[in-house]
Write a structure and sequence with these properties.
By secondary structure, this protein is an alpha/beta fold. The protein is built from 10 helices and 12 strands. It is globular.
Length: 266
């Protein structure tokens, strides 16, 4: 049995059998593997792979997303290592390629996320399970677009870090999800995750809403007050960063969350 696909960097992945020893270096992709019924095939993951929680007790932790323990990975003798262009460095991908085949995802849109789920269905011989997730996700997306169509847009800033203050901007999956929600990102003229000067937030867009993401920075009430002193009238909202940025099967939970979020900020 020969499996050939191109990953999301257009690199050819060629396998002579279905991988049975998988290492995932991306938390959202680890959860997707589990939801595809592949728990027994996962041999290694990162310390940030927190869903489902029990995996960290039963599988080998091989480091973080930016800092791997290469000897641990070698010892696990994986058939395939799963990476992501944003989450993992080029150096990590190259080091892993010295051990075994590596699949790299690259996600900017929901279409990219659906393509990844399809690719995993082919790679891991679980097409039925992947199609079930895709069908559920497509239903959720269609339903949400109907929900959102008459809701007026609002200007937002989505913060991911403090010291320095950093936001999600253009060419990110988060920005794509904000647009779907009719949240107009005041930093969409900037690229990726820029550092910004908080005191200039009114000049740079004067948002109606400021979102403080639950990850990667642990924002607190004091940070909301700090931002509030620099905005004109913005409402600061703590949001679930996983539901804005994870692009695997966690997306099945995102759209119900977004509906509740809109009801909170009316």
């Amino acid at each position: 049995m020969n499996i050939e696909i191109k990953d999301q960097l257009n690199r050819l992945i060629s396998l002579d059998k279905t991988p049975k020893r998988i290492i995932s270096l991306v938390p959202s992709q680890t959860e997707l593997l589990y939801d595809l019924g592949l728990e027994d095939s996962i041999v290694g993951l990162t310390k940030f792979c927190v869903h489902p929680y029990h995996l960290k007790q039963t599988k080998t932790i091989v480091g973080g997303t930016k800092n791997i323990k290469i000897e641990k990975i070698k010892a696990l003798n994986p058939d395939l290592i799963l990476c992501n262009k944003e989450e993992n460095t080029k150096e990590i991908v190259e080091a892993c390629e010295g051990i075994t085949t590596v699949h790299v995802s690259d996600i900017f849109t929901l279409d990219d996320a659906i393509e990844l789920i399809e690719q995993y269905g082919k790679l891991f011989s679980c097409r039925t399970e992947s199609q079930k997730i895709i069908q559920k996700l497509q239903f959720k997306i269609t339903d949400f677009k109907e929900f959102i169509k008459d809701i007026p847009s609002k200007k937002v800033a989505y913060f991911i870090w403090r010291n320095p203050w950093m936001t999600a901007a253009n060419n990110t999956f988060i920005n794509h999800i904000l647009e779907l929600n009719k949240f107009e990102n005041i930093y969409k003229n900037k690229e990726r995750y820029p550092e910004i000067e908080l005191k200039k937030i009114r000049l740079e867009g004067d948002p109606d809403l400021v979102f403080l993401s639950s990850e990667p920075y642990p924002f607190k009430e004091e940070h909301a007050f700090e931002i509030g002193r620099c905005t004109h009238h913005a409402k600061t909202v703590f949001v679930d960063g996983e539901l804005f940025s994870w692009y695997g099967s966690r997306l099945l939970k995102s759209f119900d969350y977004f509906k509740k979020l809109h009801q909170r900020i009316i």
